[in-house]
Design goal:
Belongs to the GRAS family. This is Scarecrow-like protein 3. Keywords: Transcription, Transcription regulation. It holds the Pfam family GRAS. By secondary structure, this protein is α/β, with parallel strands linked by helices. The protein contains 21 helices and nine strands. β1, α10 and β2 form a beta-alpha-beta unit. α4 packs antiparallel against α5 and α15 packs antiparallel against α18. The two termini are about 40 Å apart. The N terminus is likely disordered.
Amino acid sequence: MDIFPEDTVSSATSSPASSLYSPSPHGYGSWVQELSHDQQGVRLIGLLYQCAAEVAAGAFDRANLCLEQINQLASLDAPHTLQRLAAVFADALSRKLISLLPGVSRALQYSTAASCSGEAHLVHAARRHLFDTVPFMKLAYLTTNHAILEAMEGERFVHVVDLSGPSSNAVQWIALFHAFRARRGGPPHLRVTAVHDGGKECLASMAAVLAKEAEAFDIPFQFDAVEARLDDLVLLLDTPDALRQVLRVRSGEALAISVVSQLHRLLAADDVAGAGRTRQQHVPGSSCLTPVQIMARSSPRSFGELLERELNTRLQLSPDAASSVVSSLSPQSPAAQQQRTPAAAGAAKLGRFLQAVRGLSPKIVVVSEPEANHNAAAFMERFEEALNYYGSLFDCLERASAAAHHHRQHAAEERARVERLVLGEEVRGVVAREGAERKERHERLAQWGRRMEAAGMERFGMSYGGMMEARKLLHSMGWAGSYEVVHDPRGEAFFFCWHRRPLYSVSAWRPAACRHSGGRLGSS
């Protein structure tokens, strides 16, 4: 059964906006009890949009009022997806107001700084659970490896540079060992260079695991570690050949570069003033939320269906709020100019890095990114896109949790950690932060294509064989149906979809001057 049935949605679209969206100035406890569960869900969506619009307009008192009401309807330990998602977004919206409106801190659901530091070790476990329960990273690794395998056909010395940082996983390269071991002519001499800021222990552990597996497969193997963030590599670009030296790129080796869900972080500008303003608003321990125990029993598609329909019925802003939003985002306004400046600087930083990568003469560069537009200058545009996108990811997790019949309590607790520590942090990155600290600047494949081509790269199409391998994985893991892998319209990239909504993309590139026969990585 859906949480919010069709008749609730249709009644929402036909009701006056004032009755659905306008915050009640008094009687917080009573009005919630007067609404049915379905009406509460509809109201939550309206309140989230209302609150975001008031934040964009700088109407802090009205935003605070919206947050009060959202917290009456939503919480991180609620049984339904929409309620938990709304709590995460309320937290993010609150963080934009916390320094100017201390009363808004009631909407924040986090513990003390000491408690937050105590939970830091749980982030890795949460990421692992996300990897295990939804297929996107597995699909990214598989299709990346397939593209590398085809591009390296006949090569005897192969160097793979892993720029994925926190998204890197030894599992990806163990799978590549399998693929190379089975290829005609035997495996090449393989070298993997991993760029990661997780510390020496993390890199040493990856090195040990890969060395053991390579020995088992009788593959000549070498592992090089670069303890750094992707951002740190950009600092090397002013020194000739520094990037080549740090990544240990050598002549005589065929170079492949893999970067999973990291390139967007380079779009964050080196905007000192913007970073300073953001840091002033930062609250120690604010990235940590109170632990919760959740039992999930809801339909995974209900929120997506409701939101899709509700987005067609925009909340009606007050005239003052609407005019403030329009004024603040007009091309001539100082606010709009300030918003454009960091974006332009970030794009320049990314462009320089991509040009430096091109200068390394890789045979292939495989890029995996979230398929979303979270880099818009306009706050409301980012908010709407994020609400859609993360609503889908919350639904994915809900389905996985509900499917764990024998360990449902444990699965719900693990899902709660992912929602708080991984997805919740990303939502804060999109919604609450600005300037250099807004790292979650996801863009869609079309925009990545323009950026890559501007840096002197050309598409190196993903093969049909890679898509079939990805579909086999979905079937073997029981993910087929809800998830699917599709070619982009030009047949040169893959989209990983949840109920036909693309959530991730994978594309392959090479230096434009490096032209081989054909334009695709293979067809088998």
